[in-house]
TrEMBL record, chains A, B:
An annotated Gene Ontology molecular function: FAD binding
Cofactor(s) needed by this chain: FAD
GO BP, sorted A to Z: respiratory electron transport chain
Coiled-coil regions listed: none
Family matches, as Pfam families: FAD-oxidase_C (PF02913), FAD_binding_4 (PF01565)
Residues in FAD-binding PCMH-type domain copies: 52-233
Protein name (record): FAD/FMN-containing dehydrogenase
Gene3D superfamilies noted in UniProt: 3.30.465.10, 3.30.70.2190, 3.30.70.2740, Uridine Diphospho-n-acetylenolpyruvylglucosamine Reductase, domain 2, Vanillyl-alcohol Oxidase, Chain A, domain 4
InterPro entries associated with the record: FAD-bd_oxidored_4_C, FAD-bd_PCMH, FAD-bd_PCMH-like_sf, FAD-bd_PCMH_sub1, FAD-bd_PCMH_sub2, FAD-linked_Oxase-like_C, FAD-oxidored/transferase_4, Oxid_FAD_bind_N
Family, per entry: Belongs to the FAD-binding oxidoreductase/transferase type 4 family.
Taxonomic classification: Bacteria, Pseudomonadati, Pseudomonadota, Alphaproteobacteria, Hyphomicrobiales
Originating organism: Bradyrhizobium huanghuaihaiense
Amino acid sequence: MPGAALVTAPSIPTVPVTPAVLDRLRAIVGDKGLILDEHDKRPFVTDWRGELTGQAAAVVRPASTAEVSAVVKLCHDNGIAIVPQGGNTGLMGGATPWPVHRGILLSLGRMNHVLHVDSVGYTMTVEAGCILQTLQDTAARHDRLFPLSLGAQGSCMIGGNLSTNAGGVQVLRYGNARNLVLGLEVVLANGDVWDGLRALKKDNTGYDLKHLFMGAEGTLGIITKAVLKLWPTPKDVCAAWLAIRDPSAAIELLSEAHAASDDNVSSCELMSRACIDMVLRHIPGAQDPLKAETDWYLLLEWSSARPRQDGGAGMSDRMEQFLADQLDAGRVLDAVIAQTETQSRNMWRIRESVAEASRAEGPGLSYDVSVAISRIPEFIDKGLKSALDILPTIRPYPLGHIGDGNVHFSFMGPKGMDRATLGQYSPAITRAVNDLITSMGGSISAEHGIGIEKLDELQHYRARTELDIMRTIKRALDPDNIMNPGKVLRLG
Amino acid sequence: MPGAALVTAPSIPTVPVTPAVLDRLRAIVGDKGLILDEHDKRPFVTDWRGELTGQAAAVVRPASTAEVSAVVKLCHDNGIAIVPQGGNTGLMGGATPWPVHRGILLSLGRMNHVLHVDSVGYTMTVEAGCILQTLQDTAARHDRLFPLSLGAQGSCMIGGNLSTNAGGVQVLRYGNARNLVLGLEVVLANGDVWDGLRALKKDNTGYDLKHLFMGAEGTLGIITKAVLKLWPTPKDVCAAWLAIRDPSAAIELLSEAHAASDDNVSSCELMSRACIDMVLRHIPGAQDPLKAETDWYLLLEWSSARPRQDGGAGMSDRMEQFLADQLDAGRVLDAVIAQTETQSRNMWRIRESVAEASRAEGPGLSYDVSVAISRIPEFIDKGLKSALDILPTIRPYPLGHIGDGNVHFSFMGPKGMDRATLGQYSPAITRAVNDLITSMGGSISAEHGIGIEKLDELQHYRARTELDIMRTIKRALDPDNIMNPGKVLRLG
């Protein structure tokens, strides 16, 4: 992962967990809630990619908000640092302790209950340790949709999703994780519980605290419960695979798709030919939906909560008309609409297998950046030039959630180049990509957050004034720096 | 307005504006930007209802962010308090200085430029002093919708809308003001400028600062610019007027309307018969769309960005089918779909004239509260009983943005009762309504904010932990308490 090598450990509290504190932790969470064995701790202190490993005196697994509160209060009173963790699926090391960490890792995994589903009011109240897929399934059983959808959904937990403001493939229509939340319960750095667990769509009573805790990666408090918004279940879904002229065509086409679909565009994923070829090479059974003479493709999905009416025009009819118009306009070169569930699943499989295929292909570099949607083509164009200037044989396979302005700007190393050699080019390419995206008013981390990996990059690229405000807030809410210390921000 | 009489002035900075400071202010904003004459200051220091009047040594009208920054820095260095103001249309006194205020009032009215419209990217970058209606019109000229829509739109300014997280009649579909924003520029309490003016849909790089400044009513900084989201212009709009069984029927019906309309419900306004009768009494030309034997009505509007196709089913066909189903289900007793623009305008005129009609009717009480949508019927039922227990001859006329859980729980005084006598009952009724809404997990201020009017109510009803977090943030970002002091929070 680019940048990791540049990161030096920040100064964090190093108060050790004494046997007396351990006894008090055991008294709060019981033997079942305490992991001390090095082997058993390993999966918690190692990030899922296996690239970062830290330490923790104990993995503490409270089963209720009261237990979380008691654990945090104990740590607070003793100056002990806490690394909160959900499903441990983050890509930036936000949930992985630093090697110099001497405090505890607090896992929310036992707080995994759905507390209430209000299908008439379109809300669901849940504990932070619920697996994302469980929440999707629970909503579906009530004929509702919980739209957060991402690769790790089988193991990531909602508390982590909210703490990192997760993105995924449905942001275009439903927004990031923070947009799916009405209320939160948070355990603060001193152990107090903030009860903001309100199921209110409107509430103008002072500062909006929930948005401060979401995306803070556990550095300001620990999210323990949430009231989530639900939507109607899509009943008429139409996916299409488009060969397009270029990225500009994708932007223009998407701009018109909003109206043509009745504002029902649910996904718009841009893929390069290199991306698709890589999946076809490595993923058994994946089939190319369309052979065309172009470098650029779109997976476009429209979905409606209204079932297709007998004799009425459904999503696929509208899509067909839209694609015909776009062919005439020269933006689309060829297109196929999924006629069956199997065809649609195959299209999605290609998109979702890119990460797996890239791991099989070999060492690479990837940048999760965003920019104003209308500037994506310019970014891709200039970004490719910059990277190829540094390493002409690098193999780009850009893709992205184009409707969100989010490009996963990705490269495979040159054929035959090993990880270490590629690593020597990585700092220069990282700097070039980040310089470019910053000069274009974009973000160096669109959806994956900061964690450990991008600590120094944020420090470098963010204006001093903005970092100062963040530090002021961090110091005010966590004066002893015990909440996930050394993540997101350097305080010193 | 209930509660106002209960509020005692909080302790705020009282450093006066010396002639030397005045000279420096003049050097920053010029003669054109400085109002010192008492008569000319009056409209700025008086709230639009004419119920609150404060003081200011000077009304300062900077024309640029650099000028705002210089003015704030000057005040900061001298400990002088600042009341920021947009269109001065708030209902809670948030933009009105306290009578003991000795500092300046900073009006954003001269910063009224639309800086950029990106119609392909669906964004618009604007200065804080732009009138809301100007922004709606600008978007419309680009075939785009800026959906914020409320009674004061002809004079309120976007900076004030964002600082108060304004609501209005399209929240159900598009969200509150905070949901319409991608980026902000804010002048901080020390005069520094935070440049968060990013047109990014995704940006996970540290704490979300923009949501902290929105809804803070100018107590943490002054919003000077914003990047706003745009939507496709509705091309197929259908309004219907429904006589319904009761508020429960409204909730059930709305729950089904999301899917039936393709998630295209744009408004769902509940009105009581008393509400409609009051409008018919006082507003010349208003016509009752439907005479029915029921106490409850809904104005339901669906809108789609997709023009009605020749021969295809448009919004009104779907609405017709939906209403037929709801008649069968017994939720709707009678209904009429607007067939012409004039009919639709008449329906909306009734809804929008309620405030004007109530002023004509005489003294009254109104509570802007919210609760989980599915609990609205219970709230209305219990709330009416509580108020009638205290004053049996009071005349309720509840209405609300029911899709947002937001009820404007309103009462006219008993016939013939003067304002002063009604005022004697007001504290007891206010307390009963607020106690009830709080016990139901609701909000005592759904969309109008806190300002001066609800300072004591927030203090009374919010949990100590939550008030403590807010105070901690306020003290951290504005240690000298110069930004709109004595609003939202009591610090002492």
